[in-house]
Amino acid sequence: MGKSAQLMGRFLPGHEWEETCNKLEAFRLFAYADQELSIPQDHLEPLSKMIGRAFALENFRSIWALEGVAHYYTAAVLAAGPVKGLLSSAPDNDIPERTLVSMHAGMGTAFAESLLSKGESDLRGTVNRFFDLCRENAAPGWYDNAAEPMGLVVRSMYPHLLGAVGEVMGAAGPAAQHLYWHGVGRSLYFVPTNFMTFGGSHSRALEAAIAEAPSREDRLNSVAGLVWAVTLVNLRQPAVLRNLLRSAAEIDMDESIINGIVSAVLVWRHMVPGERAWLTAYTHLSKDDEVWNRYVVHPSIDALAHAYPVLQERNAIASLFSYRPVAKIREWQ
After folding, report:
1. Residue-level pLDDT at 318
2. Are 101 and 145 a contacting pair, CB within 8 Å?
3. How far apart are CA 58 and CA 284, in angstroms?
4. For the residues of 269-286, what is the DSSP string, one character each?
5. C-beta atoms surrounding 314 within 10 Å
6. pLDDT along the chain (333 residues), means of 10
7. What local confidence, expressed as pLDDT, does residue 15 receive?
8. Helix (H, G, I), strand (E, B), or coil: what is residue 111?
């Protein structure tokens, strides 16, 4: 895929070429973290040591490598036997606060993959066991972050189960259902039909986010999850988000679009607290682009000033993993 992207880079517009490279890099760092970080294969290193390896990378690369580390470590521990207290009371639990978004996402992905790989005959039991694993292993306040990847795994690896698992999640309650469809939306950015960024990939992904989700609340979460992924993966290239906003003009989902953008900005702020330069484009008014100001700048400024401190104080960053109305941005918790 990397070689194909290099070839297409000769023909794609600049922002589409950059977007393809960003996707490939994020995916590679997650899926092959053990190789990218030269993690020994003959024994399982302490989690804290793996985290240190990821921190040796620059900020953008480290957040995806950390997610890959958590996925790799969780899968290895699961293969060895029962798992409990992985991110809440592990013996070597020297886990920096800024890593918790990536770590819980990777852990939840590994749980979902492992459980779904064992069969499809008892989806209710699978989902309930998934919930239990997330509760038993997430740090306090971070359950939502761990549970949301179920939607990502189902849509990526078991798309034929999308509706069936969605019904089970819905039966578990609105909160579980919202997390599930937010994860589905994130996955839509990486599925094969949308991975290479040409031929209207943004429009296709947005259309799928709306068409595949059965209810309005599900669609709000699915679109928000998709926009979250586009924003976070391409934070260094605002032109990619500008391109997405042109496609988003075709749908009537303004609140969901803004939520996805703002949530990604706040998550970046949490994961990379010392890096502010890349947020400049998202917090400085444009003189000639009112659409950018309305969807990105005004909501991001408000959220960083008012929502983020509250989320930090209440240990509620994980609440960003499902849709919330932007009109209540000051009340996010």
Report:
1. 96
2. yes
3. 24
4. HHHSTT--GGGHHHHS--
5. 12
6. 49 69 93 95 93 94 97 95 84 78 98 94 96 96 97 97 97 97 96 69 93 96 98 94 92 94 96 87 94 96 93 94 81 63
7. 64
8. helix
To the nearest 10 degrees (0 to 180), the angle between helices 162-172 and 123-137 is 60
Task: Determine the pLDDT at residue 147.
Answer: 98
Give me the torsion for CA of 132, 133, 134, 135, rounded to 10°: 50
Give the Å distances, CA to CA, from 255 to 62, 64, 149, 219: 30, 27, 22, 11
Instruction: Tokens for 123, please give them.
Output: 């989806």
Domain ranges of the chain: 2-331
Interhelix angle 149-157/174-188, rounded to 10 degrees, is 50
Residues 6+ apart with CB under 8 A from 323: 178, 182, 217, 220, 221, 224, 256, 259
Q: Are 283 and 297 in contact (CB under 8 A)?
A: yes
Question: What is the Cα gyration radius of the chain?
Answer: 19
Cite the DSSP H helix spans in the chain: 2-8, 14-31, 33-36, 47-55, 59-80, 100-116, 123-137, 143-147, 149-157, 162-172, 174-188, 192-195, 201-212, 216-233, 238-248, 254-271, 280-283, 290-292, 298-302, 308-313
Q: What is the DSSP letter of 103?
A: H
CA angle (321, 326, 279) in 5-degree steps:
70
Residue with tokens 């922002």: 15
pLDDT value, residue 328? 72
N-term to C-term CA, the chain: 40
Answering whether pTM is above 0.90, one says: yes
In this prediction, residue 13 carries a pLDDT of: 53
Structure tokens at 113: 């993959």
